[in-house]
Amino acid sequence: MSTLEPRGAKVTLVGGPGREFEVNGKNYPLPEKDASNRPPNVPGNWRLEVEPPAPAERDLFLNVLLPVDTDQPAIPAVTRLEAANMLGGFIQGEQGEPGTVVWFARDKDVLDKTESLGYRLPGDGPVRHLIADLPANVDYEVRLDGKLLQTQRTRDTRTETAVRKKLTPSCSLAFATSAGACGTITIAPARR
After folding, report:
1. Contact by Cβ (8 Å): 181, 121
2. Residues 134, 151: one domain?
3. Full domain range(s) for residue 45
4. What is the pLDDT of residues 2-14, one digit of tens each?
5. What is the pTM of this model?
6. Coil, helix or strand at residue 164
7. Which residue among 79, 90, 124, 139 is buried most deeply as judged by most CB within 10 Å?
8. Contact between residue 146 and residue 91 where contact means Cβ atoms under 8 Å apart
9. Is the same domain home to 99 and 181?
């Protein structure tokens, strides 16, 4: 696991015999008779707790979990990415695989319809890009060093329940850049 936010977070491994479901120093074990609480499937056996370095009114967490084989020589490198209104990460591709860039809104649930995002491509290999927390039903232009790569429209994919509860739709864009592409990516509402 790589913790990209908060910076300087304290990461603690909690669990083991007598601490499987520990909260504030007290263990709340599942009943022994529960079939889901028998080895090898003890659900609360271990966990990682991530705490900010200092108390704050609002804390933002961004953790990258990468499942890897035990015989894999190294975990792919993860780099924190930051833009004025977004926070994200870059996961380095391994052995010819594309890298992955993921962005999330930093200070609100969804960006405004007029906000854009700009960032330098990390490296020159192929990269998959996922930009989350965008408003629904907006056409976005994706550009590399000013050259238009594509235009995409975000879609409102909320369930009927989410619409009834008036939850703000959060949409995303997904695209890829090929090997050899390097420069600055800009994602902005389409020019009319």
Report:
1. yes
2. yes
3. 1-63
4. 999 999 999 998 8
5. 0.79
6. helix
7. 90
8. no
9. yes
